[in-house]
Amino acid sequence: MEKKGLKTGYTTGSSATAAAKAGLLAVINQREQKDVQIRLPRGDMMGIHVHSCSFESGKARCSVIKDGGDDPDVTHGAEIIVDLALTDKSGKIEIGGGEGVGIVTKPGLGLEINGPAINPVPKKMIDENLREIGGEILKKSGVNVIISVPKGRELGPKTDNPRIGIAGGISILGTSGIVVPFSTASYAASIRQNIDVAVAVGDDTLVLTTGGRSEEYARKIVELPDHCFVQMGDFSGYTIQQCGKKNIGMAYVVGFIGKLAKMAAGVKQTHVKGSKVDMAFLAGLAEKAGAGAGTIEKIKKANTARHVSEIVREDAVDGFFELVAGEACRHMRSHSEQRVPIEVILFDFDGNIMARRSEGIL
């Protein structure tokens, strides 16, 4: 029986942001902080309980217990600690990793090799939240933030981190700041409902995105009402099948290299736990595009799909991204039983279009 009212949680990135904000507030007010409100990437506020808080005149140590809500992962319940200290670098906020935060050892993650595994969105969240409250203090001082996770070293091997090249701990992650409970039945129901709404109001063109960021980029190039945008997440095959059943007239399929590389290989459910990027398949596409033997070998040994895209760009393999988009388009059209005309748009991580391919569009 499906759970009702699944509880959302917050990411390791939101946990670190809350601990950092509590630390700066403690320094400013010289008072222990028990709860803080943090601003999420989309502008909403979220209240988070502060687990521990100690402070002196120019530094503080605060922690938050990461809460995955009703979608607990291995980091659920982990203590995320921030050591915050004022510096003499006025206006500068520096963010680093301590014990239990993994170190990046391979390319393809969009992070500096040998640097801490702290993703750009959590860094930005911490920076923006501290600047919101630190106006006066930042005129004369800087802030140094060190994130640590006491159990990170033992939790790291239970994640995908060792496989993708993050050693010695966990990653500080999050794109929205919120953990939405993963429930196959409820997610599928929300996709059907979204499609039904569009059909009910007479719109038969949909934009199927892999998440919030790809939707944000898609909205800049496809002008349609809000209800025409469907976040299919990892359920690409299911979503396009539903579009076929409900006589959708045309679908844009929008995403980044990781998900689209899986779709191009014919995978219907693209969650990282359910399927891995097929490097041999991508190497085959590169060979079709005229890549040299050295490039093909590098792709076979690549760490992530993003790493493959970096190799392809560095080695100037013309036509590779078009082949990925074309194969993704062909498979998605097949999953719809040839009922839905499709245009696939492959974005890079800055929102630039890398390739567009369509099938069935008159």
Structure description:
The protein has 362 residues and is α/β, with parallel strands linked by helices. Helix content is 36%, strand content 21%. It contains 13 helices and 16 strands. Strands 4-5-6-9-7 form a 5-stranded mixed beta sheet. Strand 4 (52-55) and strand 5 (59-65) form a beta hairpin. Helix 6 (184-200) runs parallel beside helix 8. It is globular. 45% of the residues are buried.
Q: Major sheet: order of its strands? A: 4-5-6-9-7
Strand content: 15-25%
Instruction: Figure out the total of helices.
Output: 13
How far the N terminus sits from the C terminus, by CA atoms, comes to 44 Å
Shape: globular
Structural class: alpha/beta
Rg, alpha carbons: 22 Å
Helix content: 25-40%
State the low-pLDDT regions, or none.
Answer: none
- Mean pLDDT across all amino acids: 90
Helix and strand pattern? EHEEEEEEEHHEHHEEHEHEHEHHHHHEE
User: What does the oligomeric state look like here?
Assistant: single chain
SSE topology sketch:
Elements: E1 9-10, H1 12-29, E2 35-39, E3 45-49, E4 52-55, E5 59-65, E6 79-87, E7 93-97, E8 103-104, H2 120-133, H3 137-140, E9 142-148, H4 152-155, H5 161-164, E10 166-167, E11 178-179, H6 184-200, E12 205-209, H7 212-219, E13 229-231, H8 236-245, E14 250-255, H9 257-264, H10 279-288, H11 293-300, H12 305-314, H13 320-335, E15 342-347, E16 353-359
Parallel strand pairs: 7-9, 12-13, 12-14, 14-15
Antiparallel strand pairs: 1-11, 2-3, 4-5, 5-6, 6-9, 8-10, 15-16
